[in-house]
Amino acid sequence: MLYFDEVPVGYRSEVGSYKLTQEEIVSFAKVWDPQTFHIDEEAAKNSMFGGIVASSLHLFAIATRLFFDHKDEIQILAMLGKDQIRLHAPARPGDTVTYVTECIESKPSTSKPDRGVIVLSDLLSNQNGDQLMTQKVTLLVQRKQF
Questions:
Q1: Range 53-63 average pLDDT
Q2: Is residue 40 within 8 Å of residue 22, measured between CB atoms?
Q3: Where residue 146 falls among pLDDT bands split at 50, 70, 90?
Q4: Which residues contact 108 (CB under 8 A, 6 or more apart)?
Q5: What distance in Å separates the CA atoms of residue 92 and residue 71, rounded to the nearest whole number?
Q6: What pTM, to 2 d.p., does this model score?
Q7: How far apart are CA 55 and CA 38, in angstroms?
Q8: Nearest to residue 104, comparing CAs of 6, 3, 1, 8?
Q9: 18: Cβ–Cβ under 8 A, 6 or more apart, which residues?
Q10: Distance, CA of 96 to CA of 3 (rounded, Å)
């Protein structure tokens, strides 16, 4: 487990990887984002993507799950924000999505000494190294000692 003081600026970690299947992309999108290029193979072929692609919501869900399962177990009290979310390229069936995070800001709380705020710069990429999504995530993190 990592506490606030153990996640300094410059901390970097490969959070995890996840392989997408067409069946899962379609199933997720049918419930949460039923755009035709997520759920209908023929319509997707005629879209700007040229085939089925994962919903951005699906990528957010994958990132959330991978972070939850992360070996470092950062002691998060709350997510305070997601900013500068960018979708650079589509995620496709068969892609292995890899999530890397880096701490770019760290500030202890001045009013509550048992916590601090960190900002993580996140990257999701595919097996070819293509950037799929980037984001900045602000987290309230428990301090080990105060």
A1: 97
A2: no
A3: low
A4: 4, 115, 116, 143
A5: 26
A6: 0.93
A7: 6
A8: 8
A9: 62, 65, 66, 96, 97, 99
A10: 29
